[in-house]
Amino acid sequence: MRPLTEEETRVMFEKIAKYIGENLQLLVDRPDGTYCFRLHNDRVYYVSEKILKLAANISGDKLVSLGTCFGKFTKTHKFRLHITALDYLAPYAKYKVWIKPGAEQSFLYGNHVLKSGLGRITESTCQYQGVVVYSMADVPLMRAPPPPSGGAGCRGDPQSRWSARCRLRDV
Amino acid sequence: MEGQSVEELLAKAERDEAERLQRITVHKELELEFDLGNLLALDRNPPTGLRRAGPTPEAELQALARDNTQLLINQLWQLPTERVEEALVARLPEPTTRLPREKPVPRPRPLTRWQQFARLKGIRPKKKTNLVWDEVSGQWRRRWGYQRARDDTKEWLIEVPGGADPLEDQFAKRIQAKKERVAKNELNRLRNLARAHKMQLPSAAGMHPTGHQSKEELGRAMQVAKVSTASVGRFQERLPKEKAPRGSGKKRKFQPLFGDFAAEKKSQLELLRVMNSKKPQLDVTRATNKQMREEDQEEAAKKRKMSQKGKMNSAPPRSGGKRKGEHHQGGKRRK
């Protein structure tokens, strides 16, 4: 277990900032306690100082997990955000998409969502923006990252021509 | 007329000459002191002209500078000149002003091991002659160095000593002994140097072959020997099943687990600030989209007006008609 290096921190922040933007400061600097990121076996855990001190007493090979796992670093040192981070990303998400109950199940099982399945969407969401997907009961379901090829801006009213395809991209 | 013009010319020439002389002669109350080796001219005249000048003494300063430079150049022209590759060159004398030190005084070096020992024992260096009489060659040879007086590596006949192996090569033995002495001397010199500069020498623990080295020591010695070639071990052969050593790079250092939390937070916030500052404030795509949308709306409004005018001309106006189109939201509610 160790703290993240500068490079690793930067990579991770860049990934998380795609969903929550400047609100990332609120994760780093919390009024209700000191929370920090620690790396253990290539996985990044978001853990309070109290829990961290307790976890330090467990030997590294016996320690499975601590706090909340935000994601892991792959072999080529790219950061992959996990669904366990959703609880922390959802309240700070900048762009949200609500889907109707009918499309919800289909989405959770990995299918695309058509435009008719969308309930609400945050205004001024660009095409190809990374969003957090909610059910109509305001339960965060998933995050939907932008597709690999960066999108061009959409012309005209974003709603009428928005390609509403959210792909399941989580472990 | 011509005479007058000739006279005029002569007068003009005289005037020019006088002017030139006036330009190059400068009158000073106190003579300047010159140090031509440093191209230095020292003016001890009181600067009354400058004091009188007032807030902007630019002109007076310039005049003073010109005068002093003129005097210096006059002095330079009086030096002996010579011609060096088609250029006329004045040979400057030795500088007389002593300049202060450029670099600070060197700090005293720590004593070498021998110097410490000699100081302890009170050994003073004995004055020795440079040349020694060499019987063999019948000349004066230097005490040490090239073609020294008693060079035992250059002997052509060596008696095998009593207890030695008769098949041993005594010449090779002497040369080997000399090499070892030289190497030892070099090592001590480097150690002294490292002590003087407070540097660390790479430790040679376990490198000397005793009979009782552990497996790790032997392994380390082997690694070091492998890397101690001119190509730093790149072309050394390996045994058929020997693997490349792992972890022979530099060990990475990480922050401690419970470091300063406040400092960690601060550095992360700083990183975030830098990241945010790099992002452009103006989102170009959104701005262009907004612009295009506004243009579209204007065009649509214009078209509607035109069509309305046409309708008004052709049919009676309908009041309270529903206006569909612009304000239709569609199925989605904007948050």
User: What spatial form of chain B do the alpha-carbon principal axes imply?
Assistant: flat
Radius of gyration of chain B: 47 Å
Q: Which strand-content bin applies to the residues of chain B?
A: 5-15%
Total helix count of chain A?
5
Protein described:
The complex is a heterodimer of chains A (171) and B (335). Chain A is an alpha+beta fold. Chain A has helices at residues 6-20, 24-28, 49-55, 86-89, 101-108; strands at residues 2-3, 35-40, 43-48, 68-73, 79-81, 96-99, 118-121, 131-135, 140-144. In chain A, the strands form two sheets. A five-stranded antiparallel beta sheet of chain A has the order 1-2-3-4-5. Chain A has a four-stranded mixed beta sheet with strand order 7-6-8-9. Chain B has a domain at 7-90. Chain B contains eight helices and seven strands; from the N terminus they run αββααββαββααααβ. In chain B, a hairpin with a 2-residue loop joins β3 (81-84) and β4 (87-90). Mean pLDDT of chain B is 84; it is low at 319-335. Chain A binds chain B through residues 1-3, 5-6, 9-10, 13-14, 17, 22, 24-25, 28-29, 34, 36, 38, 49, 52-53, 56, 96, 116, 118, 120-124, 126, 152-160, and chain B through 254-259, 261, 264-265, 267-269, 271-272, 275-276, 283, 285-286, 288-289, 292-293, 296, 330-335. β7 of chain A pairs parallel with β7 of chain B, so a sheet runs across the interface.
Provide the descriptors you would attach to this structure in a database record.
heterodimer; A: 171 residues; alpha+beta; Nuclear Transport Factor 2, Chain: A; Archaeosine Trna-guanine Transglycosylase, Chain: A, domain 4; 2 domains; five-stranded antiparallel sheet; 5 helices; 9 strands; 23% helix; elongated; B: 335 residues; mainly alpha; two-stranded antiparallel ribbon
